[in-house]
Amino acid sequence: MKKLQNREEELFQEVLKGKLPEHVAIIMDGNGRWAQKRGLPRLAGHRAGIISLKKVVACAQELGIKVITLYAFSTENWKRPRREVDFLMRLPGEYLQKELGSLIEKNIIIKIMGDLNGVPEFTQKAIKQAVEATQQNTGMVLNFAFNYGGRTEIVNTVKRIAKDVFEGRLRWNEITEKVFANYLDTGFLPDPDLLIRPSGELRISNFLLWQLAYTELWFTKVMWPDFNKMYFLKAIKDYQKRERRFGGI
Ligand code: IPE
Ligand code: IPE
Ligand code: MG
After folding, report:
1. Closest ligand 1 atom to 72 CA
2. Under CATH, which number does the domain 21-148+192-223 receive?
3. Taking the complete model, does pTM exceed 0.85, yes or no?
4. Active site residues
């Protein structure tokens, strides 16, 4: 245990010496398989995933990372059995209710992207309360993608732009990549520098389709409930070795 802590501390210090990603996006995947492997119900995996979430938030904050975006529920996750959907719908509310005090204290800004219509009242309230209570904060942005899908986001962006053109606030020939990006749900954020996906799946699953254009991707077979500070630091360490060219040479 002691040895592990030393290694973690060493890695933490190494990572601090390099260039940090400003924005890290994470697909919190593998909860169900983690639970099933232990003979537990899938819901136990989702609950265990909250512990990983807390570990990562704490580490990101210690490092001084500016933004973390977490994929918590996709527009496609409604296809799951009713019981699991109900549980997942309540989880953010529970997490925010319990953690809000400490998040405020840590100067964290809570943001949410995705469609809150169709989300239970209890969860909507907890989310709105957390967003309002932290909007004056100045620290790390903790951005949750909840009932979020990249394609839906792009379609909604097009609708917002079309409306502004139609109502004369924007000219069609003024639409540039930059303007488009500002209309996205992440309009207030820089694109992610690093995407982390645990669980062994090598895909994006409809997450941040526009924003990931030049993001560095990092995959691990570890399931999200087993993800911890050490893996987070490893991902950043690997990121620091990458050469980002953005199409140049
Ligand atoms: C991620 O874990 C949580 C959500 C998608 C909400 P999963 O529930 O997808 O877990 P696996 O992928 O089935 O193991
Ligand atoms: C992506 O995981 C969504 C979240 C983690 C919230 P999924 O488990 O839904 O993705 P697929 O179905 O394996 O692509
Ligand atoms: Mg999954």
Report:
1. 6
2. 3.40.1180.10
3. yes
4. 29, 77
Please choose from 33, 73, 148 the residue to mutate so as to test ligand 1's pocket, defined by most ligand atoms within 8 A of CB: 33
Q: Cα–Cα distance between 163 and 158 in angstroms, integer?
A: 9
Q: What is the pLDDT along the chain (249 residues), one digit of tens a residue?
A: 778 889 999 999 999 999 999 999 999 999 999 999 999 999 999 999 999 999 999 999 999 999 999 999 999 999 999 999 999 999 999 999 999 999 999 999 999 999 999 899 999 999 999 999 999 999 999 999 999 999 999 999 999 999 999 999 999 999 999 999 999 999 989 999 999 999 999 999 999 999 999 999 999 999 999 999 999 999 999 999 999 999 999
> Which positions ≥6 away from 146 have C-beta within 8 Å?
72, 73, 92, 112, 113, 114, 116, 119, 127
- Ligand 1 centroid to residue 127 C-alpha, Å: 21
| Side chain identity, residue 219 | F
Q: What residue spans define the domains of the chain? A: 21-148+192-223
d(CA 12, CA 118): 41
Within 6 Å (CB) of ligand 1, which residues are found? 28-33, 73, 77, 88, 199
- What's the 203 CA to ligand 2 centre distance in angstroms? 9
